[in-house]
Amino acid sequence: MMDTEPNKKTGAGNFSLSVDVEDYFQVWAFSNVIKRDSWDGFPLRVGDATRAVLDMVDARGAKATFFTLGWVGERDPALVREIVARGHELASHGFDHTKVNQQTREAFAKDAAHAKKLLEDIAGVEVRGYRAPGFSIDRTTPWAHEVLAETGYAYSSSTHPIAHDHYGDASAEQNPYRPVEGAALIEAPVATVNMLGRRISCAGGGWFRASPITASKMLLRRAAATLKGPVIFYFHPWELDAEQPRINSASAKSKFRHYLNLKTMPSKLDNMLRSFSWRRIDDQLGLAPVGGEA
Ligand SMILES: [Zn+2]
After folding, report:
1. So what's the pLDDT on residue 247?
2. Ligand 1 centre from 22 Cα, in Å?
3. Ligand 1: distance of its center to the CA of 94 in Å?
4. In this model, does residue 5 exceed pLDDT 50?
5. pTM of the entire predicted model
6. Which of 49, 161, 184, 211 is found 20 to 30 A from 258 (Cα to Cα)?
7. What residue ranges in 22-84 does DSSP mark as E strands?
8. How many CB atoms lie within 10 A of CB 192?
């Protein structure tokens, strides 16, 4: 694999790259103006956008975990197989992006099991990781981790332990932990740091697009020095797709967050890929390797 600046990489620390594979019209911020039953009317962009991500990641010799919607896998199974064939971890983002805290325990159990089996049947590898849409495992879903353990997932990366208007819990655990007594399931929260008496996210998403790259890298290095587990960073393929159709009917706040700095995202992401050594979450958590052609 090409790596033009190996000596500049920060190898210390456990950096994990994660990609939430969903299309631009499936994000929760647009869910009040784009109804679930209209999704099939949108031409898919997630396949091309994710393949562009794979090219960037592979060019820097990084490995990543791709939390993929079952809905996307059903429509682009070749993409699911390509993720695995290129040596990355295939994981589950649920079937159709319904938040965990908007489902009953029974509905969530169905959703989590359905997405896992669907992806496994397409790819021929075990799917061990789960990420809740919108980091929606929180204090209102005390049964969620039990369901994931019962469904056969080995880990979840579904909590974002900060205060935020749509998700998060500033008192939640920042380091990996076992949320279900007697079960091996690990919850591995995305990256946060404590600074000046506050807890700050450095995990990616809108914060990453809004912040100068130097600040993001500084916070990530600090997270690596203070967290006791993988430093998990995340982004979405649509964040690199500046040509995506605009959803004009969305609220001003949603549009601001969704479209902010899409054009500079590819160069910022490449800077991150050059600057840190990235591994799959299952590797970082010490889970034994499973199938695939890595
Ligand atoms: Zn998502």
Report:
1. 87
2. 6
3. 9
4. no
5. 0.93
6. 161
7. 64-68
8. 26
pLDDT at 196: 85
Domains along the sequence of the chain with CATH: 9-284 (3.20.20.370)
pLDDT at 146 over 60: yes
Q: How many CB atoms are closer than 10 A to CB 142?
A: 11
Residue positions counted in the chain: 294
Ligand 1 midpoint to CA 20 (Å): 6
Residues with Cβ within 8 Å of residue 122, at least 6 apart in sequence: 73, 77, 80, 81
| Confidence class for position 222, pLDDT limits 50, 70, 90 | very high
* pLDDT value for 9: 64
| 42 CA distance to ligand 1 middle (Å) | 17
- The mean per-residue pLDDT over the stretch 153-166 comes to 86
Residues contacting 110, CB < 8 A, separation 6+: none
Q: How far does the centroid of ligand 1 lie from the alpha carbon of residue 133, in Å?
A: 4
Would you state the pLDDT for residue 28?
A: 84
Residue 117 CA to ligand 1 center (angstroms) comes to 19
Residues sharing a CB contact under 8 Å with residue 212, sequence separation 6 or more, in sequence order: none
User: Quick check: 181 pLDDT over 80?
Assistant: yes
Q: How far apart are CA 163 and CA 47, in angstroms?
A: 33
Instruction: Compute, in angstroms, the gap from residue 49 CA to the centroid of ligand 1.
Output: 15
* φ and ψ at residue 162, rounded to 5 degrees: -140, 170
C-alpha–C-alpha distance, residues 99 and 15, integer Å: 26
By the CB criterion, residues less than 5 angstroms from ion ligand 1 are 20, 22, 133
Q: Give me ligand 1 centre to Cα 160, in Å.
A: 13
Mean pLDDT value of segment 264-292 = 90
Query: Separation of 83 CA from ligand 1 center, angstroms?
Result: 17
Q: What is the rounded CA–CA span in Å between residue 143 and residue 133?
A: 16
Phi and psi at residue 132, to the nearest 5°:
-70, 135
